[in-house]
Amino acid sequence: MISLTDTQKIGMGLTGFGVFFLFFGMILFFDKALLAIGNVLFVAGLAFVIGLERTFRFFFQKHKMKATVFFLGGVLIVLIGWPLIGMILEMYGFFLLFRGFFPVVVGFIRRVPVLGYLLNLPGISSPT
């Protein structure tokens, strides 16, 4: 089992609440307040989990600047009060930032009993 420090545990909680508020804000027709709270909690939780310095290094790498501008710009636009446009920019930036992690996540999900079965169906699984 992975041991987490108290700070990382707090970060996992903040990140989880951030994802919950983002999801709930989208379900409730892009509620500005819930999306803003979710954005702040998600970014703060990420900083708590991996550390402030590593968070800055992750976001401000030279090859990820376009993704960072879209993601943080989307957060800012949501905070200003245009949630639909902000979330579209944010999702695009999120995809660009974390696209290297998606194969790892899919590989992990393939080992989960029910979801793994669904991902291994003939029309969904990629030919090897």
From TrEMBL:
InterPro entries to which the protein is assigned, alphabetical: Got1, Vesicle_transpt_Got1/SFT2
Keywords, in A-Z order: Golgi apparatus, Membrane, Transmembrane, Transmembrane helix
Phylogenetic placement of the source organism: Eukaryota, Metazoa, Chordata, Craniata, Vertebrata
Compartments where found: Golgi apparatus membrane
Family of this protein: Belongs to the GOT1 family.
Xref: Pfam families: Got1 (PF04178)
Transmembrane segments: 12-30, 36-56, 68-85
GO biological process: endoplasmic reticulum to Golgi vesicle-mediated transport; retrograde transport, endosome to Golgi
Organism, scientific name: Chrysemys picta bellii (Western painted turtle)
Name assigned to this protein: Golgi transport 1B
Membrane topology, from the record: Multi-pass membrane protein
A Gene Ontology term for the protein's cellular component: endoplasmic reticulum
Function of the molecule: May be involved in fusion of ER-derived transport vesicles with the Golgi complex.
